[in-house]
């Protein structure tokens, strides 16, 4: 049965995820109907997490700046691709950073479009932070578009909020989409508007079914496996334990969720009594004046989760939100729920790496919505 499922996957439109991270775009693509045949990233921890969830995809630790479209086709895609997706590094464009237009990582945005021009897939989709549209980055965007504007129909950059598509986070991203005229049915901006009946998912809805009481001593990976439930109705709730694409998912995680109702990532954090008491006195929707941690409003959306800094910048943990009813910061599993990931999805076993992977990712809720619209336009 599994062999037949994998054969069916091979018949699906084939895409590559560049700068794949832990797989927010990949999961949305797989749920939209695509076969994520290959995922590429230089972050070994993120690539390991992606491999745990996409065991049948090819994974490569490759410097995108040295990758060519021809190598991509010959080595990873068997000479043909329907699409290339990816989220080039955003640190040089983010308002949370220094907005350094000379940041070397900014060049990777251009490299994404260069690879598209060399591999010539039917379509491409790149995403980044809204800061990339700042006039300071006009030169970078123009250089990138120069690679594809001759052959591809380019849509205007679209700034979309995940909460408008049924995710419990307000996280905004800019999507850059292009397609070959003779290989795709027409795509228009209106194609990507949220459905009129899209559900509104708040913080309280996202956390429903997760354990509130988290012991600070739950520090190991095994201790973080706790009983969870997919309570509630609608699109979001149904995707917490279901809508698992063929060939996607870690077998152990899927089995433990199915038979034991357990999910990983329910890890505790040790707070002093004074800190816990201070957190308890903060109103929902307000921030702690010392740690700057925002206390989640159960009736609101989660603000954008931050990734923190990598080893090259000191490996600083990003400020984590506070749980709306418990005097503590949120767990990795709660962060995953707030970002729109299902309970069976796996991240790194440590808090630092898992929060970094979740904070760096696109919500799979919005990526599925956007890529479903593209999938419907792909000509077989």
Runs in which pLDDT lies below 50 for 5 or more consecutive residues are none
Q: What is the CATH first-level class name of the largest domain?
A: Alpha Beta
Q: Helicity level, as a percent range?
A: 25-40%
Rounded to an integer, what's the Rg over CA atoms? 20 Å
Largest sheet, strands/sense/barrel: 8 strands, mixed
Could you say what the CATH topology of the largest domain is called?
Rossmann fold
Structure notes:
The chain is α/β, with parallel strands linked by helices and 380 residues long. It folds into 2 domains: 208 residues, Rossmann fold; 158 residues, DNA Methylase, Chain A, domain 2 (Alpha-Beta Complex). Helix content is 31%, strand content 12%. It has 13 helices and 10 strands. The strands form 2 sheets. Strands 1, 2, 3, 4, 5, 6, 7 and 8 form an 8-stranded mixed β-sheet that branches. The longest helix has 13 residues. The protein is globular, with a radius of gyration of 20 Å.
Question: Quick summary of this structure?
Answer:
With 380 residues, the chain is α/β, with parallel strands linked by helices. It has helices at residues 2-10, 24-32, 44-53, 69-76, 107-119, 138-146, 203-207, 235-241, 251-260, 273-280, 332-339, 351-360, 364-375, and strands spanning 14-18, 35-40, 58-60, 83-86, 123-128, 152-154, 158-161, 172-180, 226-227, 262-263.
């Amino acid at each position: 049965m599994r062999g037949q499922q994998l054969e069916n996957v091979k018949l699906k439109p084939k895409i590559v995820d560049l700068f794949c991270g832990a797989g927010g775009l990949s999961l949305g693509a797989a749920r939209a109907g695509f076969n994520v045949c290959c995922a590429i990233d230089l972050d070994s921890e993120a690539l390991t997490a992606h491999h745990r969830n996409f065991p049948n995809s090819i994974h490569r630790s490759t410097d995108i700046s040295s990758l060519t479209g021809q190598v991509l086709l010959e080595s990873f895609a068997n000479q043909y691709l329907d699409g290339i997706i990816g989220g080039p590094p955003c640190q040089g464009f983010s308002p949370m950073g220094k907005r350094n237009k000379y940041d070397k990582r900014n060049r990777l945005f251009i490299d994404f479009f260069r690879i598209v021009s060399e591999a010539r897939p039917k379509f491409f989709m790149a995403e980044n932070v809204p800061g990339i549209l700042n006039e300071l980055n006009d030169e970078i965007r123009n250089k990138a578009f120069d690679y594809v504007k001759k052959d591809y129909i380019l849509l205007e950059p679209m700034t979309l909020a995940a909460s408008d598509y049924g995710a419990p986070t307000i996280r905004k991203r800019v999507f850059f989409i292009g397609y070959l005229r003779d290989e795709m049915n027409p795509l228009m901006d209106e194609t990507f508007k949220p459905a009129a009946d899209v559900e509104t998912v708040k913080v309280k809805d996202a956390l429903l079914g997760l354990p509130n009481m988290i012991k600070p001593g739950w520090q190991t990976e095994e201790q973080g496996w706790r009983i969870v439930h997919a309570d509630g109705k609608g699109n979001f709730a149904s995707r917490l334990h279901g809508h698992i694409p063929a060939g996607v998912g870690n077998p152990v995680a899927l089995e433990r969720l199915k038979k034991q109702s357990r999910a990983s990532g329910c890890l505790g954090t040790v707070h002093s009594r004074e800190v816990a008491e201070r957190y308890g006195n903060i109103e929902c929707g307000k921030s702690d004046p010392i740690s700057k941690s925002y206390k989640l409003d159960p009736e609101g959306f989660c603000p954008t989760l931050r990734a923190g800094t990598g080893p090259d910048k000191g490996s600083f943990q990003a400020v984590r939100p506070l749980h709306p009813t418990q005097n503590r910061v949120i767990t990795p599993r709660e962060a995953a729920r707030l970002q729109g990931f299902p309970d069976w999805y796996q991240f790194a076993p440590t808090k630092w790496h898992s929060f970094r992977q979740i904070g760096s990712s696109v919500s799979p809720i919005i990526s599925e919505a956007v890529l479903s619209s593209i999938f419907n336009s792909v000509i077989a």
